[in-house]
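User: Design a sequence. Structure:
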């Protein structure tokens, strides 16, 4: 019996590219699928201290769906720290203004809140339309 624990090296990590069509998908369910691939949890070589994940391209972010009345009630808030620095924006207005940002925020909330999570988020490419400039990477469709 081998008592040694296998740990993948950074040079041994194989990165693949995946394409996801967000047309008609629910925002949260899509975000969980994408976050899992970005973290690398779909691989046998996953480790919590390494970024073993793959690159993900999301197309048609403008055509994503949400359940219930979240377009009006879900609010993204922030505060600058200054007096009267409170800003609030509903999901519906954010989807009109920048639909790719709404998808990015949903995926970011499901990744680790560390430098490793920021590194994983950099492998996410989101486009509101149906075409992308990453044809040279030969992306596969994510099931």
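Assistant: Done.
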């Amino acid at each position: 019996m081998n008592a040694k624990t296998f740990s993948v090296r950074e040079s041994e990590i194989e990165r693949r590219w995946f394409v996801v069509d967000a047309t008609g998908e629910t925002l949260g369910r899509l975000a969980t699928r994408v976050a899992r691939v970005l973290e690398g949890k779909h691989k046998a070589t996953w480790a919590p201290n390494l970024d073993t994940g793959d690159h993900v391209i999301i197309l048609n972010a403008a055509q994503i769906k949400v359940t219930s009345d979240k377009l009006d009630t879900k609010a993204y808030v922030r505060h600058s720290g200054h007096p009267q620095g409170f800003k609030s924006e509903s999901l519906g207005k954010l989807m009109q203004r920048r639909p790719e940002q709404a998808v990015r925020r949903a995926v970011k909330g499901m990744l680790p809140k560390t430098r490793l999570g920021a590194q994983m988020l950099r492998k996410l490419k989101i486009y509101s339309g149906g075409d992308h400039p990453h044809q040279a990477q030969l992306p596969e469709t994510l099931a």
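The beta strands are 17-21, 55-59, 75-79, 86-90, 124-126, 140-141. The mean pLDDT is 96.
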